[in-house]
Amino acid sequence: MIDTHSHIYSEEFDADRAETVQRAKEVGVCHIILPNCDSSTLAPMLALEDEYPGYCHAAIGLHPTSVKEDYEYELALVKSELERRNWIAVGEIGIDLYWDKTFLGEQIIAFQQQLDWALYYKLPVIIHVRNSFQETMNALAPYNNSGLTGVFHSFTGTIEEAQEIIAFGGFKLGINGIVTFKNSGLAAVVEQIALEHILLETDSPYLTPAPHRGKRNESAYVSLVCKKLAEVYNYSAEQIDSQTTQNALALFGI
Ligand SMILES: [Zn+2]
Q1: What is the 129 CA–ligand 1 centroid distance (Å)?
Q2: Global pTM?
């Protein structure tokens, strides 16, 4: 399994980060992808990647909820990091209108600037969408047939939205613990989506799957998402693991 979205570099794991990685390895997680948020997360993320080279892979990007008055400074940092070294992806980037709509214009500018850089550096993108599906698709529209690839992380939309993403081309859907929440309705949507379009993720430390809901999430729990998808698709957990791992390896070029 590959946890394609994990923030285990965050301070929630300061006391037991090595054990957290160990538990992930023990359940069969072979790679963990670390999306960046902003200038404050860069150093801890890079420190974790340094400790587990070839296992933890850092992405670089400016998260939409970190797009504020100083977004140009934050974007300049992303640009210089892209110039400095190789990255697994550009992310996480996108539009979030759940917490705050004040910076919608700036969020769109930052999103599209980072899409341009992803194309230039031939990197996939990790897209964060919250209460902003239409705004995100509108911002992506000029990039149709551009060769852009990536993942809509933490997908929780309708089947129509899933079909719109798949029809756009080049994009996978990241599924996490939300699929185990009875009231989410996500399992009924996911079962209509071909497994070749699905990636596993946790979004640790958030969105902890059942039966640990409400506690801290961690990469080892990606196995609970895998197990739930086995139920949803009526496949074995090994089949879910094998296909979603293949999907992630191909997208991220690991
Ligand atoms: Zn995230």
Answers
A1: 10
A2: 0.98
